[in-house]
């Protein structure tokens, strides 16, 4: 990072990078711990998780990010007038210490609730098993309200426990949700990810799991809430949409937003092409949001706001 970035900068300019804006893979935290290499040397020698750097004019940032859909791109810093060092990386020490800490604490036990295909489920499982991700979470349970949901097969391929809790077998939402809570408690679940779970949760369920219940929605909330978000986006005539990961509150798609990813809409798009493009960004966004919550970087405050730690 310290020696490659200057190759694309004129000598009077520098780069100011913020290490809280990217994920440092645990391997680098481990290298630092066992070798006690200085921060400067770590940054000189390793990419510390950054595989590709682009310098983009401010006014083009949104467009570039949108077209890098699915590439896990984010803004990690800015070009500045050169200080004595040409590249500075702020918060590297605290960021790498945070990763070191997550290597030592117990991983959160996560349940994913589905009703259908389960591509988000699969990407969460793969992220949780990817040692570069440092997700701090294991997917230990998958619950479907539909016995035929394909996501159940996906879970089984990964040897993850599955349960079917059919809503039709319960007289009302309260009792259905209680059956879910019973399963979740029996599996000592810390965090629940709704991933295409087509039921609205009751107020008591939302209260029981406050701050531990996440959902993903294929739009830039508060736009296009509810069903058919892709169709709503196409009909709006907008040239971009996106996805949102949020904590669940008592209403549908209104909870505090943890993060969003933007996706372009093309004139030639159909609901299917847009849905596929959105899913790519959903898969990246959901894993990232789960990492934030599982490693306690993001929490939900008593008054239902997202707080960063
Ligand atoms: C996704 O678009 C998600 O945002 C929405 O339901 C869909 C589930 O897709 N809540 P999959 O089952 O994860 O493929």
Write up what this structure looks like.
The structure is a single chain. Helix 1 crosses helix 4 and helix 5 (119-128) packs parallel to helix 10 (271-294). Strands 6-5-4-7-8-9-10 form a seven-stranded mixed beta sheet, with helices on both faces. The chain has a three-stranded mixed beta sheet with strand order 2-1-3, with no helix packed on it. It has a two-stranded antiparallel sheet with strand order 11-12. The protein has helices at 26-35, 39-45, 61-67, 92-104, 119-128, 150-157, 173-186, 203-208, 229-236, 271-294; strands at 13-18, 77-81, 87-90, 108-114, 137-144, 161-164, 191-194, 213-217, 240-247, 257-264, 298-300, 306-308. It has 309 residues and is an alpha/beta fold. It has ten helices and twelve strands. Helix 5 (119-128) links the parallel strand 4 (108-114) and strand 5 (137-144). Residues 116-121, 195-196, 216-218, 282 line the site of 5-O-phosphono-beta-D-ribofuranosylamine.
């Amino acid at each position: 990072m310290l020696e490659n970035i200057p190759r694309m900068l004129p000598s009077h300019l520098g780069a100011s990078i913020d290490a809280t804006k990217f994920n440092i893979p645990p391997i680098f935290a481990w290298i630092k711990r066992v070798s006690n290499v200085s921060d400067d040397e770590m940054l000189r020698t390793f990419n510390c998780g950054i595989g590709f750097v682009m310098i983009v004019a401010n006014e083009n940032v949104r467009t570039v990010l949108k077209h890098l859909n699915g590439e896990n791109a984010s803004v990690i810093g800015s070009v500045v007038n050169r200080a004595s060092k040409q590249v500075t990386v702020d918060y590297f020490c605290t960021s790498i210490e945070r990763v070191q800490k997550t290597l030592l604490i117990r991983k959160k036990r996560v349940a994913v609730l589905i009703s259908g295909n389960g591509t988000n489920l699969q990407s969460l499982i793969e992220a949780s098993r990817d040692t570069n991700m440092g997700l701090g979470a294991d997917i230990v349970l998958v619950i479907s309200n539909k016995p035929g949901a394909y996501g159940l097969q996906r879970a089984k391929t990964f040897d993850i426990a599955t349960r079917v809790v059919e809503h039709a077998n319960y007289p009302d939402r309260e009792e259905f949700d209680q059956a879910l809570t019973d399963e979740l408690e029996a599996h000592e679940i810390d965090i629940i990810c709704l991933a295409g779970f087509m039921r609205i949760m009751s107020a008591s369920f939302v209260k029981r799991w406050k701050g531990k219940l996440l959902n993903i929605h294929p739009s830039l909330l508060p736009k296009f809430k509810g069903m058919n978000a892709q169709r709503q986006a196409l009909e709006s005539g907008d040239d971009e949409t996106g996805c949102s990961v949020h904590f669940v509150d008592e209403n549908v798609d209104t909870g505090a937003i943890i993060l969003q990813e933007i996706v372009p809409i093309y004139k030639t798009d159909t609901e299917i092409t847009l849905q596929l493009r959105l899913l790519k960004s959903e898969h990246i966004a959901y894993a990232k949001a789960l990492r934030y919550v599982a490693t306690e970087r993001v929490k939900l405050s008593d008054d239902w706001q997202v707080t960063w730690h």
